[in-house]
Amino acid sequence: MRWLLLLLIALFSALANATLYSNAINDGGWSVNSSIFECRLAHQVPFYGDAVFLKRAGEDSQFFLKPLSERLKTGKASLVSLPPVWKYDTEKVDLGYVAVMRGERPVKLNSRYAERLLTELLDGMELEITRQPWYGGKESSRVAITPIGFRSAYKDYQDCLAGLLPVNFDQIKRTSVFFGSAKFDDLLPKDRKKLDNIVLYAKADPNVTEFFIDGHTDAVGMRNDNLSLSEKRAKTVTDYLVSRGLSKEKITMRWHGERYPVISNKTRAGRAKNRRVTIRLERLEELPSN
Questions:
Q1: All residues at 6 or more sequence positions from 254 whose CB lies less than 8 Å from its CB, including other chains
Q2: Residue 39 maps to which CATH number?
Q3: Which residues contact 247 (CB under 8 A, 6 or more apart)?
Q4: Which pTM does this prediction carry?
Q5: Do 19 and 142 share a domain, yes or no?
Q6: Is the pLDDT of residue 167 over 70?
Q7: At how many degrees (to 10) do helices 150-162 and 111-122 cross?
Q8: Residue 191, number of CB atoms within 10 A of its CB
Q9: Residues near 60 by Cβ (< 8 Å), separated by ≥ 6?
Q10: Which of 140, 162, 184 marks a domain boundary?
Q11: Is residue 52 predicted with pLDDT exceeding 90?
C-alpha cells in the first residue's frame, strides 16, 4: 500500500501545477491495428485523445498525438521520460523539446524519436509531453503515456511489422523505368525491382483495378522509328508484369514516341529521362485514413 500512497501523492502534486491527462494506474488503454499495409500502436489518453506509433509499408516509423480537440499551444513542448514511483532509484530522462503545431497532429515526431520513445516505454518508463494550453491558461497541460499494458501490445506491433509489404500505394502509383539509347529490352535490376514491387502490391490490394503503361523515347532518330521503339518498350514492361502474375486484362498499353518529353532533349541527361515507360495504377478507393 505504501507505493500506492506515494503514487497518489505524486499525482496530486502534479495536478497542483498542471492539467494532467493520464491513465494513472489503469490498464493503459493500448491497442494495435495490424495489416500488411500499415501497423498502428495506439495509447488512449482519457479526456485528451490518442498517442500513436505508426509505420506504413515502405516508410519510416513515426509518432504523433491525435487529440479530441486542440489542447496545446503552438511552439515547443518538453518531452521527458519518467520512472514509475516504485523505481525510486531511477532518474528521469530529459528528451528535449519537440515542435507543437496547429492541426489534427499537433506533435509529430520522426523515426528516430519514435524508436527512442518505444525503448523508454519498454523499459517501464512513462512519457510526458508538457506545454501551455492554447487558450492561455496559467497551468501547463501534461499528456502522459503510460507503460502499463504496453509490452503485450508492443509484441503484437512487432509481429505486424514483420509482415508489412515493402512499398505502399503512394510509392508505386506512378512509376517510371528507363532504357538505354535505341534499346527496348534492357531492363536494369533496379527497374525489375520496381516492377516486382508493383506486382507484389497489386496482388495484395484488390482495390487496384487498372494499369496504364505508356512507352516514350527521346527525340533522336526518325519519328516513325521512335513510335515503334516506344511500343516495344511498353510491350517489354507489359510482358514482364504479366510474367510475374499481373492480369493482362487489367492493363492498357499505349505508346507515344517522342511526343511527350518530361524534359528537354538537348542534353544527354534529358534524353536519358525521356527514354522511359511509365506505369500508372488506379484504385477503386483509398485505404482507411489515419
A1: 212, 213, 214, 215, 234
A2: 2.60.40.2540
A3: none
A4: 0.83
A5: yes
A6: yes
A7: 140
A8: 19
A9: 110, 111
A10: 162
A11: yes
Q: Is residue 36 within 8 Å of 163, Cβ to Cβ?
A: yes
How far is Cα 61 from Cα 57, in angstroms, rounded to an integer?
9
Grid cell in block for residue 243:
510474367
Mean pLDDT of 31-35: 97
The 10 Å CB-count burial string (b at 16+, else e) for 219-245 is beeeeeebbbbbbebbbbbbebbeeee
What pLDDT is attached to residue 271?
Answer: 97
Q: Which residue range forms the structural domain that includes residue 116?
A: 2-162
Q: What is the DSSP letter of 2?
A: H
Cell 518531452 -> residue: 79
Q: Give residues with Cβ within 8 angstroms of 101, minimum separation 6.
A: 74, 107, 108
For residue 145, the cross-strand partners are 127
Burial class (CB in 10 A: 0-12, 13-18, 19+), 120: buried
Helix (H) or strand (E) holding 5: helix 2-15
Q: Which residues neighbour 65 within 8 Å (Cβ) at sequence distance 6 or greater?
A: 49, 50, 51, 52, 105, 106, 107, 108, 129, 143
Mean pLDDT value across residues 67-77? 92
